[in-house]
Write a structure and sequence with these properties.
By secondary structure, this protein is an alpha/beta fold. 29% of the residues lie in helices and 15% in strands. It is built from 14 helices and 17 strands.
Length: 498
């Protein structure tokens, strides 16, 4: 249809940043097929790229700013009053080279400097901190360090997620609506505990605006955004080097102490695999977050987030839940999971977060499409039936925390598609049975499983993809000879002789 509309017309096509993703020849070949370029009257294609090899006759080199232009931009962004502070001016002139004179990096630097000077003794703190970083290790003297040290408007987990695997979430769609990005942050737990949906959404919107202001996200028309993939702004390696800690490439929460316990579902991987089209156009009103989709039967709910003691009552009031794909209940007070869930045959993501009052799971749920399941803070739940998981054979991410059950349900070990298994804070179970079916498992988190004393598979030979094993057990004999130890991240593990 696009190709038809372009016939006999003159076309200028601008592909911003596509040169970083594909070679020029590949791009042109695909465009000729997609747009039927031979039938276009005349056309020019402008492909932008950073750090591209030079020498092509059709190449136009755009140089970074000069030092003078960079300092002028910095002054405009922080304001003349701030810039005229002798300390700030001196520090800016020394630090500006770390931006490599890229405008976006300079604006991010100005943003961080502005934050420092708003604090009590901020100028002195910035001067001392930068001097200490520069003297101790010049590699630390960069933008990532500046963000880490002083700019805390952005939750650390959002920054890490952005740098680590944000492109997985955007996937091949190129752009998404900002409301969907906020819903993603809420569901992954990046914005902290949710006790009010309106406040959580407002916090997410504030973070979104900060990312835009820092040039890490770019606004498009109609509320859509794209990632700025220019690694000259903030380098991923700098985050690890400067003490941000490390999230796994699965969207897991930070594994180091400072971010420990953050919820994470690995939703970005669902986007990458094409298993799920996303939340849809999100709206926030009346204490809930929701989106609708078009079906043959009309408009149906596809995403629903609810919070508080009326979760299930509100849920029960909705009609047409058969098409619901994403359901998240925060802080529900129900003692039992409602049979209503059994009607939701299209569910892909089910999050039950803050289930302090849940005491029983007395229904079987034939959720055959379910890919992500979280039942967290289930501190009153003493048992999960053995037949809980037989119909959830597509499950890739299972997150259960604070469960008091022992043993774990036997059907759990038949989940062949499982990529990450989070059993954080489950303090009663003693054994993890054979994981021979977990050939796709990449992450196993049993931190806080204080009664765990035995893995049936001591060498983890059945889990060749396992990249991260996380536990905080002081004594766990017999595991000092793990053959795949080099590919594991073991936190607070002390091995002793068996």
């Amino acid at each position: 249809m696009i190709a038809k509309s372009l016939e006999k017309k003159k076309v200028l096509l601008i592909l911003d940043d596509e040169g970083n993703k594909m070679k020029e020849g590949q791009i042109m070949t695909e465009l000729e097929t997609l747009l039927n370029l031979p039938n276009v009257s005349s056309y020019k294609v402008l492909i932008t790229n950073t750090n591209a090899p030079t020498g092509s006759k059709d190449e136009i080199l755009v140089k970074p700013l000069s030092v003078e232009e960079s300092l002028s931009l910095f002054r405009d962004r922080v304001g003349r009053r701030v810039y005229e502070d002798p300390v700030i001016k001196d520090l800016a002139e020394k630090f500006i080279k770390e931006t490599e004179y890229f405008p976006a990096a300079i604006m991010l630097m100005a943003k961080a400097f502005s934050y420092f000077v708003q604090c009590d003794s901020g100028t002195h703190m910035l001067e001392s901190a930068l001097k200490e970083a520069f003297e101790s290790d010049s590699k630390n003297y960069n933008l990532a360090w500046l963000l880490h040290s002083g700019y805390d408007m952005l939750p650390r987990s959002v920054l890490i997620d952005y740098c680590r695997h944000g492109s997985r979430f955007f996937r091949n769609r190129g752009s998404i609506h900002y409301s969907e990005l906020i819903a993603y942050w809420i569901l992954e737990g990046y914005l902290g505990h949710v006790d009010c949906m309106e406040k959580a959404y407002e916090k997410g919107h504030a973070v979104f605006m900060e990312l835009v202001d820092c040039q890490l996200l770019k606004k498009l028309d109609s509320g859509y955004v794209v990632m700025d993939s220019d690694r000259a702004i903030v380098n991923l390696d700098d985050f690890d080097h400067c003490g941000f800690g490390g999230t796994t490439s699965l969207g897991l929460a930070d594994l180091l102490e400072d971010c420990e316990g953050t919820t994470s579902l690995g939703l970005a991987y669902l986007f990458e695999d094409g298993e799920w089209e996303g939340f849809g156009r999100i709206s926030q009103a009346d204490g809930m977050i929701k989106s609708v989709c078009s079906t043959k039967m009309g408009q149906k709910l596809s995403t629903l987030f609810l919070n508080g003691n009326r979760c299930l009552e509100i849920l029960d009031s909705f009609s047409g839940l058969e098409e619901l794909q994403v359901l998240a209940l925060f802080n529900p007070t129900a003692k039992s999971l409602t049979q209503l869930l059994s009607k939701m045959s299209q569910l892909i993501v089910l999050v039950l977060r803050g289930c302090d009052f849940l005491v029983e799971m007395d229904h079987k749920f034939e959720l055959t499409r379910l890919t992500v399941l979280e039942i967290s803070n289930a501190s009153s739940l003493k048992a999960i039936p053995d037949d809980c998981f037989p119909h959830m054979l597509q499950l890739q991410s299972l997150h259960i925390s604070e469960l008091k059950a022992d043993p774990l349900p036997s059907s759990l070990y038949n989940l062949k598609e499982l990529r990450q298994l989070i059993l954080r804070g489950c303090s009663c179970f003693k054994i993890i049975d054979s994981m021979k079916n977990f050939k796709n498992l990449m992450v196993l988190d049993v931190s806080g499983a204080t009664s765990l004393t035995k893995f049936i598979d001591k060498t983890f030979q059945h889990t060749p993809k396992l990249g991260h094993l996380i536990f905080h057990i002081p004594l766990l004999p017999g595991y000092q000879n793990l053959k795949i130890l080099d590919s594991l991240l073991i936190s607070h593990f002390v091995a002793v002789n068996s």
